[in-house]
Predict the 3D structure of the following.
Amino acid sequence: GDSVTQMEGPVTLSEEACLTINCTYTATGYPSLFWYVQYPGEGLQLLLKATKADDKGSNKGFEATYRKETTSFHLEKGSVQVSDSAVYFCALGTDKLIFGTGTRLQVFP
Amino acid sequence: GAVVSQHPSRVICKSGTSVKIECRSLDFQATTMFWYRQFPKKSLMLMATSNEGSKATYEQGVEKDKFLINHASLTLSTLTVTSAHPEDSSFYICSARQGGGTGELFFGEGSRLTVL
């Protein structure tokens, strides 16, 4: 069945460092791909999404490109801030979503 | 964005009792809501799809009689964990779809259940 694999965390970075959180998937068909973020004490929020191959989703300085050839949707940000500290979930699907295990990002000043 | 609220956010109960968790869409109507369970360091596992006015659709391996889901109105779905046991302790999260079809999903804050 469909699945999502994320890199394990925590990822610990200094402020202004570059971020990459890897996400790969296996799927039949052509699902949409998502990144959700969960800040401490809050529910999951949609960060960005891409609905077809080669689409790039972007929001709040984060980007991810739907790469069919490598079945990947890596999350990137050029310069992280302390406020980006959260758990990030990669997900795929159309109606029902399948989530990765989540990657905790900790950014220190 | 739209708001989905869960209540209670934390609940502790004794083994053998039943616990009800509510999921409300506060500013939109949701014909479909989803219930997830999240284990520590694990992904969110979809438990069931809740459809307003009809029976929930459960994922394989999820006990229907154990996890009762009711979607009585367009803004409220409830999950009742019946005869709870320590292994039911987990973080339960609901989400609601705004509009039909592929409308965006909005998630509740989650409810942490601890069964003693």
